[in-house]
Amino acid sequence: MRPYKHPAASELSLERVLYALSDSIRLEIVRQLAGVEVATCGDLDGGRPKSTVSHHFKVLRESGLVRTENNGTIHMNSLRRADIDSRFPGLLTAILAQHPTD
Amino acid sequence: MRPYKHPAASELSLERVLYALSDSIRLEIVRQLAGVEVATCGDLDGGRPKSTVSHHFKVLRESGLVRTENNGTIHMNSLRRADIDSRFPGLLTAILAQHPTD
Fold it and tell me: Which of B14, B100, B102 is opposite residue A98, by nearest beta carbon?
């Protein structure tokens, strides 16, 4: 299985990060990942169809928020907290501090 | 001319605010409005076509970030800073503190 591509920390875009977080499912995934080291897609899908969740993980990866690594047939996801915090200081903390609204 | 509709502060959604700010033109408009009391669309359009800018103002109004009031034939826009700050403490400050990236 080919490794997933992830943007370098220097390539992260504020607008893409905000877009990635502008969906309640993706925001929930990021909230969950903020509390753990790694998680499988199954841990994070909330029982939603795989096709739906795959799309959301793709958006999260492309924004630089999430890293997905293959561990055999299992995909392990982690929040790129250090990269996001270094590029956009205080941003993720301020967003995750808000109560979910949708 | 009919007055524009604006969501009440209690109806604001985090996801809609993040979506509204996920576009570089809208982010620039909000940055500019953060520095002034009110501004016309012409002050904020950066020379872009009216149709493009109208759409962006609509998204900003619907998210609750911007209020547009008719003053005769002139539309005056202002940032709903107090409403946003009260509903999402620290959010706008953290986002506007970032350097534009796109």
Answer: B14
